């Protein structure tokens, strides 16, 4: 996904805690907590952080699949409700470390906004550095923002695009689920899904692009992705429900890949009983 070269003073798609700490109180800095599932139960946050609720308003609940990207108009409405302006610099994190924060980063980027980065290590890294936290507080932003959505074609794709990608010798489809789920030897956590993977897909568990809760250095990421993608320069990434696929999307960008798409429905769609092909084994 091409990025606007004028994306503020962000050093890239990933920032460390020192970078954020030095800018936290600057006007125009917005911090979003994108934790999901059990990780949403944390009672503390980075000071001033606002809830980017992937399990709630930031998913399209009219679609019978988890974590589906909302339509552009609805997404823009929710971002404005969070007080995000078009000139802001946004940093997203989650309380697990590197798990769902990249999903928020990718969604915002998919809507044409480039001044957004992921906090490396998330809240655990922030707290380990001895930086301040505060108790969660009810309520939203003090005022509405003026965020505008400008969707980028190809950032998020459906099953038809994945079928084409699997047949394209220049595209690698990477699956971020565990090796056991990929092989079909472990049950899927969501009822009614087939086990296994797409024929021709490669397995790259999202934890393999991290070490100690932080993203691997770019040189190591290039080696990891090079081995999994087999030299192919275009990537389509998938997972269980479109969340940890975005960890791979973040790693791919850090590794220098310029053509990356996230399969929004991921295995929650592909694994349903259908004519979409599924194979098992490594």
How would you describe the overall organization of this protein?
The chain has 282 residues and is of the alpha/beta class. The strands form four sheets. Strands 1-6-5-2-4 form a five-stranded parallel β-sheet. A five-stranded parallel β-sheet has the order 8-14-13-9-10. The chain has a two-stranded antiparallel ribbon with strand order 3-7. 26% of the residues lie in helices and 16% in strands. The chain has two domains: 14-135, Oxidized Rhodanese, domain 1; 156-270, Rhodanese-like domain (Oxidized Rhodanese, domain 1, 3-Layer(aba) Sandwich). It has nine helices and 14 strands. Helix 3 packs across helix 8. Strand 5 (89-93), helix 3 (101-110) and strand 6 (116-119) form a beta-alpha-beta unit. The chain has helices spanning 17-21, 72-81, 101-110, 122-128, 159-166, 179-183, 218-229, 245-254, 266-270; strands spanning 14-15, 29-33, 44-45, 50-51, 89-93, 116-119, 134-135, 156-157, 171-175, 202-203, 210-211, 214-215, 234-238, 259-263.
Quick summary of this structure?
This protein is 26% helix and 16% strand. The chain has 282 residues and is an alpha/beta fold.
Produce the secondary structure layout.
Elements: E1 14-15, H1 17-21, E2 29-33, E3 44-45, E4 50-51, H2 72-81, E5 89-93, H3 101-110, E6 116-119, H4 122-128, E7 134-135, E8 156-157, H5 159-166, E9 171-175, H6 179-183, E10 202-203, E11 210-211, E12 214-215, H7 218-229, E13 234-238, H8 245-254, E14 259-263, H9 266-270
Parallel strand pairs: 1-6, 2-4, 2-5, 5-6, 8-14, 9-10, 9-13, 13-14
Antiparallel strand pairs: 3-7, 11-12
Helix pairs in contact: 3-8
């Amino acid at each position: 996904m091409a990025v606007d070269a004028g994306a503020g003073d962000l050093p890239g798609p990933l920032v460390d805690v020192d970078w954020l700490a030095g800018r936290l109180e600057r006007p125009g800095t917005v911090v979003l907590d994108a934790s999901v599932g059990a990780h949403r139960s944390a009672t503390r946050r980075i000071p001033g952080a606002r809830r980017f609720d992937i399990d709630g308003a930031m998913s399209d609940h009219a679609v019978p699949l988890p974590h589906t990207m909302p339509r552009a108009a609805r997404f823009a409405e929710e971002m404005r409700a969070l007080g995000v302006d078009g000139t802001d610099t946004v940093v997203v994190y989650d309380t697990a470390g590197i798990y769902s924060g990249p999903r928020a980063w990718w969604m915002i980027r998919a809507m044409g906004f480039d001044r957004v980065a992921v906090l490396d290590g998330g809240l655990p890294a922030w707290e380990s550095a001895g930086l301040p936290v505060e108790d969660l507080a009810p309520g939203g932003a003090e005022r509405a923002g003026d965020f505008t959505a400008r969707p980028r074609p190809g950032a998020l794709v459906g099953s038809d695009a994945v079928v084409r990608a699997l047949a394209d010798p220049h595209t690698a489809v990477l699956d971020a689920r565990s090796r056991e789920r990929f092989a079909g030897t472990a049950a899927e956590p969501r009822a009614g899904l087939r086990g296994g993977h797409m024929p021709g897909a490669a397995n790259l568990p999202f934890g393999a692009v991290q070490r100690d809760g932080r993203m691997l250095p770019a040189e190591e990421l290039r080696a990891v992705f090079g081995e999994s993608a087999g030299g192919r320069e275009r990537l389509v990434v998938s997972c269980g429900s479109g969340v940890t696929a975005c960890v791979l999307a973040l790693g791919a960008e850090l590794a220098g890949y310029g053509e990356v798409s996230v399969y929004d429905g991921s295995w929650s769609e592909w694994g349903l009983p259908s004519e979409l092909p599924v194979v098992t084994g490594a």
